[in-house]
Amino acid sequence: MDKTNTDLDDLRREIDEIDESIHDLLMRRTDVAQKIGGIKGAGPTLRPAREAEVLRRLVARHTGPFPKTQLVGIWREIMAAHLRLQGPFTVAVFAPDENPGYWGLARDQFGSHTPMMYCQSPGQVMREVAEDRAAVGVLPFPEEEEEEPWWPHLLGPGKDNPQVIARLPFTGERDRRGAGLHALAVAKLTPEETGDDRSLLAFETEDEISRARLHSDLAAADLPARFMAIYRGGRQRTVWQHLIEVDGLVLASDKRVGRFRELLGDAAGQVLSLGAYATPLTAEDLGPDAGGGDGT
Question: To 5 degrees, how large is the angle CA 248–CA 252–CA 254?
Fold first, then answer.
């Protein structure tokens, strides 16, 4: 037999052995995940912060030419499968006319085989989550000049209101599906800290206040913010609603939020936390993709 063929056969046998080792570890991981699910109780328990911590750790320790974007994709599928083993888990996706853009982002984040439902409007997504027909909703990232933004719907009273839990794609601009799109995921969960987070706060003012004044008051409260959107809302369109993004995990109970409200004075209405998300991986985190052999 030709020596080249012999060498190839040996290498393929080595790959087979490695595949079986990976498979053994995957089955072992599944056993451990099911034990964790048993400790937590009935139903799937989504932990976006924990998932982000796992992915960051793996990306940071990764070496070699295997692309980090695909590494993240593999682990997202594993985590999604383990979540579904704990019980029914459905995602509601804003997909007007079954547009595949946000659908692709949702698939990448929550798994290729996770049940998903098309929703024709952001309001429908919110209802599916609020009424527990879906565990998670995927919605367009807020923009400045929207006639009817969805995010004011998170301002309503009630401890079970959906909260922002993730920004999609977690792999930033390098995402291959839903190119150019960004989205937020909402669920009935309390945000948890990962060490690198961004929070969304919303507040109301009775009068229109200049952005310069708002920036000044937020900075004085130690809450330097990026403005995302302003909307004239309320039943009579008489209240100005502001959506901002701040660094770190900042909840409505944070003392800095109270300080900001004091600085606004009589103009201030409610200030609410709309959730938080782990800061997505950057192009620098992921590095250049590198190809290899055919792996067979």
Answer: 65
Q: What is the pLDDT of residues 19-37, one digit of tens each?
A: 999 999 999 999 998 888 7
Residues in contact with 163: Cβ distance below 8 Å, sequence separation at least 6, in sequence order: 154, 186, 187, 188, 189, 190, 191, 273, 274, 275, 276
Burial 3-29 (b: 16+ CB within 10 A, else e): eeeeeeeeeeeeeeeeeeeeeeeeeee
Domains contained in the chain, number: 3
Question: Among all chains, which residue has been given the structure tokens 């982000």?
Answer: 52
Q: Write phi, then psi, for 186 (nearest 5 degrees).
A: -120, 150
- Whichever domain contains 115, its CATH number is 3.40.190.10
Range of the domain at 56: 3-84
Q: Does pTM top 0.90 for this prediction?
A: no
How many Cβ atoms are within 10 Å of 247's Cβ, its own excluded?
14
